[in-house]
Amino acid sequence: MESDGALARTVEALLFLAPGTVTLTELADACDASEAQVGEAVTELEMELRDRDRGVVLRRVGGGFALASDPRAEQAARRLLAKPRTPPLTQAQAETLAIVAYLQPVSRPEIARIRGVSSESAVSSLLERGLIEESGRSRFGATIYRTSELFERVFGLEGLDQLPDLTAFDPTPEDERELRERLVAAGEQRSEP
Amino acid sequence: MESDGALARTVEALLFLAPGTVTLTELADACDASEAQVGEAVTELEMELRDRDRGVVLRRVGGGFALASDPRAEQAARRLLAKPRTPPLTQAQAETLAIVAYLQPVSRPEIARIRGVSSESAVSSLLERGLIEESGRSRFGATIYRTSELFERVFGLEGLDQLPDLTAFDPTPEDERELRERLVAAGEQRSEP
Amino acid sequence: MSSRLDLDLYLDLEVFVGPFDLLLTVLLREEVDLLELELAEVAAAYVTKLEESGEIELEVATEFLVLIAALLELKSRLMLPSADDELAELGPEEAVDELVARMLEYRRFRDAGQAVTDIFEQERGHLYRSAPLPSAFRRVAVENATQAYRPEVLGEAIGRLLEPPARPDLSHLKRTVSLRSRLSALRAVLEGDSEFDFDERFGREDRLTQAVTILALLQLHTEGEAEWSQEEICGPITISNAAAGPGKTAVGSPGYVATTEREAG
Question: Cβ of A85 and B19 within 8 Å?
Answer without folding.
Answer: yes
